[in-house]
Write a structure and sequence with these properties.
Length: about 200
């Protein structure tokens, strides 16, 4: 199972973007040290650092590793770009994104046959022509008995199932985008999960 982490500066100033770039580099380095595959899915950069980035983690230790990064990160340092600025505390957030539904293919669909409904005595009742198709990854299922043959019902069931999955995926993608948008404004200033100090980002 892959885990996606989103690094957000919450539209913070240049100092937050500098910090976010460091956090991304450190996260990638720590993941490699733990035997975890880390891939940058997307990132938005500027001359100071990054505004945001999404990293996908894969590996047996990915779940535990991700928890050590989820939350608010704090950097205590005089501004390297505004020397006279009185502020010395800069914050960014790292959030876990919702997991998308797997794309359905033939290997993920289980078909079951059963007797179709209808009035007693009809031919459609005497054979197991109805078909239930279930997508094992999501648990979504459909039942089709509108066609006379099992083959035709199976084909139709697969078509309807894929349509349902596509609709669910579209809804989840919307949720995914909304979650990323909301997280831009949800960086909490208190109780940081990790704290770094100085221009060399020494961790407390």
């Amino acid at each position: 199972m892959s885990i996606s982490l989103h690094i957000s500066t919450a539209q913070g100033p240049a100092e937050c973007r500098i910090f976010a770039r460091f956090a991304l580099q450190k996260l990638l380095a720590e993941a490699q040290g733990c035997g975890i595959t880390a891939d940058i899915l997307e990132h938005t950069a500027d001359k100071h650092g990054i505004l945001s980035a999404t990293v996908e983690l894969n590996g047996e230790a990915a779940e535990a590793f991700s928890k050590s990064w989820q939350g608010t990160l704090q950097w205590i340092c005089s501004s390297p770009v505004r020397p006279k600025h009185p502020r010395k505390n800069w914050y960014i957030g790292i959030f876990r994104l919702p997991e998308p539904v797997e794309t359905a293919d033939g290997g993920e669909i289980v078909f079951q046959t059963c007797r179709a409904g209808g009035k007693g005595g009809q031919h459609v009742n005497k054979t197991e022509s109805a078909v239930r198709a279930t997508h094992t990854a999501s648990g979504i299922s459909v039942r089709v008995e509108s066609e006379r043959s099992q083959h035709a019902n199976k084909k139709r069931a697969r078509e309807l199932l894929l349509q349902k999955i596509a609709s669910l995926q579209a809804a989840q993608l919307e949720q995914h985008a909304a979650a990323k948008h909301n997280q831009l404004y949800q960086v909490e200033r208190g109780n940081p999960i990790r704290v770094f100090e100085g221009v060399h980002f020494k961790e407390r």
